[in-house]
Amino acid sequence: MEGAALLFERIFDKPPEICCFAPGRVNLIGEHTDYNGGHVFPCAIDKGIYCAARKRSDRKFLFYSVNLPDEGIIEYAADNIPLKGCWADYPVSVIKALSAFGHDIRGGAEMLFCGDLPEGAGLSSSAALEVVTAVALREMFSLPLTGQETAVIGQFAENRFIGVSCGIMDQFASAMGRENNAILLDSNTLEYEYAPVGKAGIVIINGGVKHSLAGSEYNQRRRECEHAAGMLGVTSLCSLTPDEFEKSKHLINDDICLRRAHHAVYENQRAIDAVSALNRNDLAEFGRLMNLSHISLRDHYEVSCEQLDHLAQAAQNYPGVYGARMTGGGFGGCTVNLVSPEAVNDFIDFIQSDYENSFGIKPEIYRVKAVSGARRLLP
Ligand code: GLA
Does the reported pTM lie above 0.85? Predict the structure, then answer.
């Protein structure tokens, strides 16, 4: 984080006024439920995006990414912000979204970003970028923004301006995380509760296969779910319990929509049940539900891939692993593994060589902690 301040000074010739941080997230269970009015259970992780920033008195915004130095400083005029089709569209979309929500920013800013979240790996680098932008602007311009509103604005920015119809989970986890806890969020009401993740190790394995949410698959899943909900006569799939769904599923006359709906309804129930299990300290049951989640994402929702299936299966068979599943939007990216603390090191060694032997790619492996949500770090 001092690194971000020093780099800022090098790029913009002045020290920054503030430094902020927004974490990425890993979702433990409740996948593809957040745009179906269901529950998710993510935690913010100790990897994320830093932003060093300084106000300007004119109406210009200048952005620089340490991770993409070749793109240089990207400039936008605040009063006329067309998107440019590059990474800086994310922070700019947040400025547009803030103004749509009535938060006028009087002035401009220089903002430098750097981070240690792999991009396109399903750990929410986009949401962290959106949330850190909103928090930095909140701090510099004294905007009256709550954590929840920050999440809603980040999601709005991505839906409206970037064109990805994502749910609220990623931005919510990044803005509202709590140390050592995951968040059970009801995406329908935005009611939430924290649950301690306990002593089990959270291990994320990045298979090195990229996903692209903006790629039409994600939006396509969402449309299929909406179509299924329409045939069932409900506004969102997760308003149905599994029993209610079983009684009415004959109304869905399309096999793909039926499978998508099956996943959403049962995954929502699994998320609720998993958190009850965790609160009883029943990690074996939590892990069993994670494993079922993976199977459903693979077979009903069809968002997994060969590499993720292999990683999940190999982990599920390994002693000391409670549960393993793909995490995030899918089509590549990461698995999340809940592992007993004594088994973590051996498991990491095993999965590393197993994956490399099978696919010729060295996976990146992160042992992460659950951390608190986006915040100002300096001064
Ligand atoms: C992406 C989206 C989230 C959520 C997950 C799938 O991460 O941004 O809103 O839908 O996929 O659970």
Answer: yes
